[in-house]
What we know:
- The complex is a heterodimer of chains A (155) and B (724).
- Chain A has helices spanning 67-70, 123-126; strands at residues 12-20, 23-28, 32-37, 51-57, 60-66, 83-89, 92-98, 100-108, 112-114, 127-133, 136-141.
- The termini of chain A are far apart.
- In chain A, strands 8-1-2-11-10-9 form a six-stranded mixed β-sheet.
- With 155 residues, chain A is mostly beta strands.
- Chain B is of the alpha+beta class and 724 residues long.
- Chain B has four domains: 3-141, Up-down Bundle (Four Helix Bundle (Hemerythrin (Met), subunit A)), CATH 1.20.120.160; 162-309, no CATH class; 385-563, Heat Shock Protein 90; 568-723, CATH 2.40.50.180.
- The longest helix of chain B is centred in the last third of the chain and has 29 residues, at 695-723.
- The A-B interface holds A 40-47, 53-56, 58-63, 91-94, 148, 150-151, 154 and B 332-333, 335-336, 339, 579-580, 624-627, 666-678, 681, 683, 687-691.
Amino acid sequence: MPRPQQWGDDDVLEFVTLKAAGQSFCIEITQIREIRRWTPVTALPHAEEAVLGVMNLRGAVIPIIDLAARLGLGECEASPRHVIIVVAIGSKTIGLLVDSVSEILTVEGSQICEAPTMGGGDVPNSILGLISIEEGMSRILAPEILVPRGLTDAA
Amino acid sequence: MSRDDLKATFFAECEDLLDQLSEGTGELEAGTATEETVHAIFRAVHSIKGAAGAFALDTLVKFAHRFETVLDRLRSGSLVLDPDALQTILRSGDMLAELVELAQAESDEEPSQMAELIELLVGLSGSEEDGPGAPEPDEAFEFTAVSFMPLSFDEPGEDAEDVYKIRVPAIADLFRNGHDPFLLFAELVGLGQLDVSCDASALPVSDEFDPNRCYLSWELTLTGSMTEVSIRDAFVFLDDICEIEQVSGGSAGPALDLPGIEPEDSPMTTAEPSKPSMPQVAAEEAAAEPAAVASSTSEPAAAEKSKAAKPAASIPQTTLRVDPERVDRLINTVGELIINQAVITQKLVASGMASNSDIMSDLDDYQYLARELQEGVMAIRAQPVKPLFQRMQRIVREAAYSLGKDVALVTEGEATEIDKTLVERLAEPLTHMIRNAVDHGIEGPEKRAAAGKSAQGTIKLSAAHCSGDVLIEISDDGAGLNRKRILEKAVSQGMVAADAKMADSEIDNLLFMAGFSTAEKVTNLSGRGVGMDVVKTAITSLGGRISISSRQGMGTKFSIALPLTLAVMDGMVIHAAGETLVAPLSSVVETIRPKPKDILPFGRDGRLLSIRGTYVPIVNLARLLGFPTEAEITSDNILILIRSEQSGLVALAVDDISDQRQVVIKSLEGNYGAIEGISAATILGDGRIALIIDTDAILSLAGHYGREMASREEMDYAQTATMG
Lengths: 155, 724
């Protein structure tokens, strides 16, 4: 399978792998600002389902998005065991609620496979590529697609 | 620095210069002007002209040149300041400000009154005025002989040598700190001809002598074509301690016989009272600042001269230009600090810490320091309202001139400081109100005479701090509101019923209603239908309140109460459907715990609150914001009465009110986006975020909601029927 265009064959890349709705995903480490434990959020009026609310990140107000719900994989029942991954997308900072964070993967560009374009829901659109891992594969997330709908224009 | 940056600096400097200019013309008008005032005005105009030339702003240069010529005559005493000349000078100052604004907007438009004013100026500038045609940019330098100009000049020629005098006082720790005066002075030799005289009179007798201590002081005289900067570079470690003074320079001219600077060969004694060097440097910098745009190498010389020219005048205020974003960041961080302090306190209290324990009293200190810090940081953003008020002088003059009225603006409390953003955002509503006052408030001359008033109308603009608010008042001594006509107009526009009985204050408040205008003729100043409602909206959006009072035949007064800053506000912490929200205190009229009999059903789902004989719609806040709630409004709810311009009085039903406090305003738009009904967020003592409700938007939401309810009624009914 051809590899996605944004990575060269010889690029050495680092990804943080995470679990959401039982599936393995990963995000390029350069996009991640920090990882923290789930704390209750403040609900936003008229927000879409995946937007759980806003959280105080050292004085910044950041929206928290349920990754599983955003990908159409069902809602996540947040508990203190869950993890929030803070990612920077353009000028915005958002938090993603996930089940857990697993490890840091170091791979070469040539090891990344292109994601198939077939399939349903939002998942294929937001997956940049696939990396084979021990227990199957990890899906590389394109965080910019995860920004709540309707807000991308304002970015 | 790019050209655009330079231009931005130029306009920033222009603002300062225009402030100086209008301050000066204000003194001229008030008759408190001294010789120095005229000089200051001249300097300001000249500096603007010089710098404008550099940016090829021809219209501005042309006008400034004419203006300057007149001011020069005034300065030299060949022009007498009669009322006509004064008027022309005042208007020219306004015109200059307008031209700067136009240049900033990159508009080529020529203001309508410009040709007329230029003619007046030419008339005042006498016969020596050279023919028409734009002056050469070089003309900016024709006044080189003027001793106090903070403008700078080109590099002096080879033949012109600068002479600097440097005093190195006896610094006890000089050797201990690793300095060697020999090496220091040797560096100066490279710059020019150096003469060193050493004063050893402070050397003690033998047994007190400490070999590690320096008892010597020096006076150095450096001759050559160097700049003060290069000297300071050489003395970088001793810069604060040494006194560097330019005694003469190629461009100095008449400044050579400056008072206070002793002849070069004056004998030096230890008793010589040496001026403290720090304030001097500061003053130099301050004086040089207005010239920063055009600054070049001889800046210290110019500064020195400007200092000498007005020894008695107050030292110009030093200002610091800081990117507002940096200050905002600081304010944010301090806001965090305060929240963090509140979080710690809350947690310690929760952990059962006794309030008289050491750590709690330390925490009190922490709180005190944090508040102090916050106030200090807020003060950076605070600006006096003076420039704003001075702009209003201009507005009054322009408006009075075009209406043929004689109006004076009296200002009070110009030093009152408010947040910079508030200053900026007040300009428009204030302009509007001032124009209104000139147009509608002050009567024409005949009417005033008939009413036994002085021909000159007076508008008073004042600012004062009043219990955490800033109070701005605009009053005129005009005819007062014509309530009969206001009422007639409101009736004819269908705003009130024809048979309505209204109190005077209610009639006055009709002015604030959208689309209301009483002007009989639409002048180009006011009466275009954008009236006081716009002013009121602007003030409300700043978190302020506006009120009006008027007495027939005596005048009208508008009072504006504004918060000191936009970064924090007073809020009421409320709870609805398990969520914590903050309502801005400025829009809360009162809070009520209703009796069951005061809540009346209205329609199928609606509720009205009966309060003091009127009925106010009750809005369920949680439902309005889309939070899940099943609860019906009962007397267990607390009702918060809020007032908005569009919807009048509305009662918001909430579960509870827990606190009333200052909250730090956090934008939601940075990382998320605008939310209908929510203006911003804040962080509470427990570190959680609470949303601040936008009362005006909430009420218009409530309006939609009401209509939707009506259309959904049947559907809902069907649903409840099946559920039942």
